[in-house]
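Hi C.,

You asked whether I'd gotten around to modeling the 326-residue construct. I have! Everything is below, sequence then structure, no commentary in between.
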Amino acid sequence: MGVANGKRVFLACNSGASVMNWFTRLWSPARPTHPAPVHQVEAASTAAVSEPSSAPDTDMSAEASHPFVPWLAGTVERTTQTITPNEQHALDVLQGVLALPEIPDMLLPRAAEVVPQLIALLRETQLPLQAIAQRVGKDPLLVAEVLRLASSPYYRAQGDVTDLEQGIRLIGSVGLQSAIARVVLKPIYRSAAGASGSLHANAIARLWKHSEALAERAAALADSAGLDAFDGYLLGMLHDTGWKVALASLDRAKYTLAAQPSAAFVTELTEQAHRLFGLAAQRWTITPGFTAFAADARQNGLANGKHPMAALLQQALYLCTLPGGR
């Protein structure tokens, strides 16, 4: 690809009026060797992405689930009580979905054109720069995403970027791949089936916001661990489809989340949502690494995941629960 090669670093960029978490890898030897600050979604403060070795000595899958579920569902914090019969019914509903060979379209629309389009575009990132710019230029949404990324605060000293070829050269190959993935995959989160006021409809905007934060963190952690950063970005971007399926399933079962869910229920619900992601991701053979992680998610869950990315995802989820982390 006609972009500079060199040291890979990350940046966060503005998205509209609010500051959104964002990931990309930049190939430019003149850039700093440390990750740029991670700009928060809902807070003015920033928090640097930490190395995997600095993770707290705790079960992060449980720690991450406890503040996340109340935030996602708009409830208050969980209680210390045991799982109630109503909560057990919800878990049984999701276990029934997990027993299926694949996720029904009514719970997660197949969006058959999405992944082939993504794979085709990703292959084109290996073309010469001019050819890439011509292809990207056919998609106004992708053009806007590339230019917004290239004009982010990280490059503010160079001024806003208005030339597409210049923008592609600045963000680099993996930066372009992440921009493509964000534009192509966003419709998966837009299809909010369910009546107004349902668990699914109420949470869909938060799921997309969380998926962006999770993608950025998972990519940064994967890169620092010597794993594929784009695989980290993909699993972070698509991981919350498990929650999307879970909430849609509970809506169809007429389930209402308690104002104060039990901690044990929240932990188990998080595990089931992770496995549902693994089941849903069977449709998305985007990269071998992503496919292998999805298979591990379905079989082993999050807390007992065997794939190297499982521990990194737990830390990324944990980081997203910190103040301003979403």
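If it helps when you're writing up: Residues 1-58 have pLDDT under 50 and may be disordered.

Thanks,
B.
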